Amino acid sequence: MLCIVCSMANCKKLRLKDAALKRMLSVVVVTLLGVLLLIVSLRTNTTPGLSELDEDLSEITDIQSFSEKLNLPKQNEFSIRLAKINQMPPRNRDLYPKLAKDHITIVLYVHNRPQYLQVVVKSLSKVVGISETLLIVSHDGYFEEMNKIVEGIKFCQVKQIFAPYSPHVFPDSFPGVSSNDCKEKDDAGKKHCVGSPDQYGNHRSPRIVSLKHHWWWMMNTVWDGLKETGGHNGHILFIEEDHFIYPNAYRNLQLLVSLKPIKCPDCYAANLAPCDVNLRGEGWDSLIAERMGNVGYAFNWTVWRKIHRKAKEFCFFDDYNWDITMWATVYPSFGSPVYTLRGPRTSAVHFGKCGLHQGQGQTNACIDNGSVNMQVDDIDRVANIRPEWGVHVYDNQPGYKAGFKGWGGWGDDRDRQLCLNFAEMYHSYNTSLSAVTMS
């Protein structure tokens, strides 16, 4: 009897040990799975969209093959990868499944100034109505720190696009630097190098020409190359990585867009800030009509078509700045003054201290003490534009006008042709698709 009791006790101990072992194994398995999931997550976030690249590439492949017919530069592997990522759907659709019916899409174009980008993203997070719309972030090349900041946005739907023909994506060939490129004031005949100089005798600098290339590629892509904005009849707002956006910006813009046909039917756009970036507004009880500014500007597809028809003027003007090119040659070619409508108080501020893509890194960031102390009064937190206001029109404002020859930096025939190709890229592709469908 004692033996039986002892064996029963032993059996009980064995069962307890077996149960404990099973629990321990379960914990180990769960832990291992968690570690594996973490590794996969980290790898996925290190390079943009790698886990999704093979979902549906048929349309992307067609675009690439047709691009070759336009004599666009031969893409390297990284450029092709970026072009595929551009076709990915927006993120955060689970958090914001529907966009507001009258939403104004916001496009933020950036290069590689992460401290600047953190400021503008933080300001956007506090904008009233931001969750109603889509934010498109257009990158001039791929930079990991910039990508991580954008991937952290949770306050609205967000889509990233990367310029696949950015000079920063081509380290050893055009549009980047080629080994046989002419440099500075080289004589192409004597040096046996490639390139045509600008009006001042200087050869191209990829770092400089990327400014104009990115803006033009972005415009053509946003208006004519994305499913999310295709057929968009409303306005699209364009801001840059060194623009601080006030909380009332979106609501003010909605008011300006609705009032523009009534108050200023000849205005081409709506602006969040004065054309003089040093001003904060007049503070009047009046709307303002003035020349187009380059901080927080919004226009519709009809205006884009007018701009697009001036592709040759844009692409052949010898100035590396997109905005000066527009002021000095594109807008004057419209035949009448190009006005924009804005409020008497700014809703966006340019805070950048340096241009030409400087300011990346901790040591040379162009922000005081690594931050921006922007005063936001109570009046700037809510819409402060009144429908009953009249319009004050500024005539004969100073600035770049027709006749200005440009600052140069844009004389290379290859840059001009690439610019023209961007203008034709989506139109030629869509025409080709239509022809295939009809046949």
Task: Describe what this molecule looks like in 3D.
With 439 residues, this protein is an alpha/beta fold. It has one domain: Spore Coat Polysaccharide Biosynthesis Protein SpsA, Chain A (Alpha-Beta Complex). It has helices spanning 2-46, 58-69, 77-85, 114-125, 144-151, 188-191, 206-224, 249-263, 301-308, 311-316, 322-330, 413-438; strands spanning 105-110, 134-139, 157-162, 236-240, 243-245, 267-271, 287-291, 297-299, 339-342, 348-350, 391-393. A nine-stranded mixed β-sheet has the order 3-2-1-4-8-6-9-7-11, sandwiched between helices. The radius of gyration is 27 Å and the shape is globular. Pfam families: MGAT2.
Task: Note the overall shape.
Answer: globular
| Helix/strand order, N-terminal first | HHHEHEHEHHEEHEEEHHHEEEH
Which CATH-level-2 architecture?
Alpha-Beta Complex
Number of helices: 12
EC number: 2.4.1.143
Transmembrane segments: 21-42
Enzyme class: transferase
GO molecular function, one term: alpha-1,6-mannosylglycoprotein 2-beta-N-acetylglucosaminyltransferase activity
Question: What are the key terms here?
Answer:
12 helices, disordered N terminus, single chain, globular, 39% helix, Spore Coat Polysaccharide Biosynthesis Protein SpsA, Chain A, disordered C terminus, alpha/beta
